[in-house]
Amino acid sequence: MENQPIGGSYPKIPSLGSDMTNTIQNAQELKKAELQGEHISISEEQLIMAIDRAVQAVQGPATVLDFSIHKSTNQIMVKVLERDTGKVVREIPPEKMLDFVAKLWEMAGILVDKRA
After folding, report:
1. What is the DSSP letter of 75?
2. pLDDT tens, 25-51?
3. Strand pairing category for 88-92 and 13-14
4. pTM (two decimals)
5. Is 20 helix (H, G, I), strand (E, B) or coil?
6. Among 42, 45, 102, 48, which residue's Cα sits nearest to residue 75?
7. Alpha-carbon gap, residue 114 to 97, rounded angstroms
8. 109 and 103 in contact (C-beta within 8 Å)?
9. Torsion angle of alpha carbons 65, 71, 73, 76, nearest 10°?
10. Torsion over CA of 13, 4, 78 and 87, rounded to 10 degrees?
C-alpha cells in the first residue's frame, strides 16, 4: 500500500442527506458539515485507509504496532514491537490483565450457575 501523508488530504467523503452535493475534502469541511447537522457516512475502504494512515503515523522508525483480539474477552490488544527483533516493548492493555479479567468473568459465571 502506498504511503499517504497524515493531515494534508483526506479521502473524499460523499455527503448523504440534504443539499450537499459536492464531496468533503478536508477536516474543516467535515466539521462544518457536522455542525450544520449533516449525517456523513464513509465506506469501509475509506475507514480502513484512514486507520492505516493513523497506524503508520504512530509507528516509529524502530517500532511496529501489532493489533489483535484477546480470545477470552474479545478486547482489542495493541503490541508495540521492535522492528528488527520482534521483541515486545509494550502491550496495551497488558495481556496478563485481560487473562485476569477473563478468569474473573469465568469465576463469576461459576458462582451464578451454582446459585441458580
Report:
1. -
2. 667 777 787 788 877 777 787 788 888
3. unpaired
4. 0.51
5. coil
6. 102
7. 26
8. no
9. 20
10. 170
